[in-house]
Amino acid sequence: MMGFEMSNERASPAALSRRSVLAGLGLGGAFALGGCSSGAAPATYDLAAPRDGITSGRGKGLIVIAEPQALQALDSNRVVVMTRGGGIAYLPDVQLSDRLPKLFQVRLIQTFENASRIQAVGRPGDRLLPVAQINSEIRAFGIDEASGEALAEISVKIVNDRSGRILAGHVFTSRVPAGGSAVAALDLANQALMRDIVKWVSARI
């Protein structure tokens, strides 16, 4: 993974402390509140749709997966750092390949397709006749400074597509130590989360 350069801006002792923690996580010792720390083009990273770790077997349901809801801090292509004081920072000079909710939706659809646990899967508006829609909300997705872990947490609901009745709901959480590569750890946490979601949903359709 690419390293991150130290900002030349003056920082408070608290900020310097946080930078020391982030340096220990393999983040290069810098983060930015708001914009990137340099004028260089940010490095772009993707999230993978896992292909293994899910027992295959054709399901009988057809579902659609809506784009997850997310607060403004998560509704972007920035990589979030959840600071010790409950604040929000961003990794500098780093971005995801798309807005997080859109990227998560696409990769979750691909994970269902890879697992072959559902008869068919698509998006709302694909002119399908689904038995259910998967609605979700991204609660947390980023680096937890206090624990030194990549954290992904999402609330998922299975909704009857005709009646709108919630059939089942669950909150999924995944944590991976971020000591080597923060973005790689976040991708692993996300893959574990998607495996769990696919298993849970396909067992109820």
Describe the structure.
The protein has 205 residues and is of the alpha/beta class. The chain has a single domain, classed as Rossmann fold (3-Layer(aba) Sandwich), CATH 3.40.50.10610. Helices cover 24% and strands 28% of the residues. The strands form 2 sheets. Strands 2, 3, 4, 5, 7, 8, 9 and 10 form an 8-stranded mixed β-sheet that branches. The longest helix is centred in the C-terminal third of the chain and has 21 residues, at 182-202. It is elongated, with a radius of gyration of 18 Å. The protein starts with 12 loop residues before the first helix and ends with a helix. Residues 1-21 and 28-36 have low confidence and may be disordered.
Helix percent band: 10-25%
Q: How many separate structural domains? A: 1
- CATH architecture tag: 3-Layer(aba) Sandwich
Termini separation comes to 39 Å
* Poorly predicted tracts of residues: 1-21, 28-36
Q: What is the H level of CATH, i.e. the homologous superfamily?
A: ABC-type transport auxiliary lipoprotein component
Secondary-structure element series: HEEEEEEHEEEEH
Number of helices: 3
Helix/strand-derived category reads: alpha/beta
Strand content: 25-35%
CATH C-level name: Alpha Beta
Mean pLDDT: 83
Give the tally of β-strands.
Answer: 10
Radius of gyration, taken over Cα atoms and rounded to an integer in Å: 18 Å
- What shape does the CA trace take? elongated
In CATH, the topology is named Rossmann fold
User: Biggest β-sheet, characterized?
Assistant: 8 strands, mixed
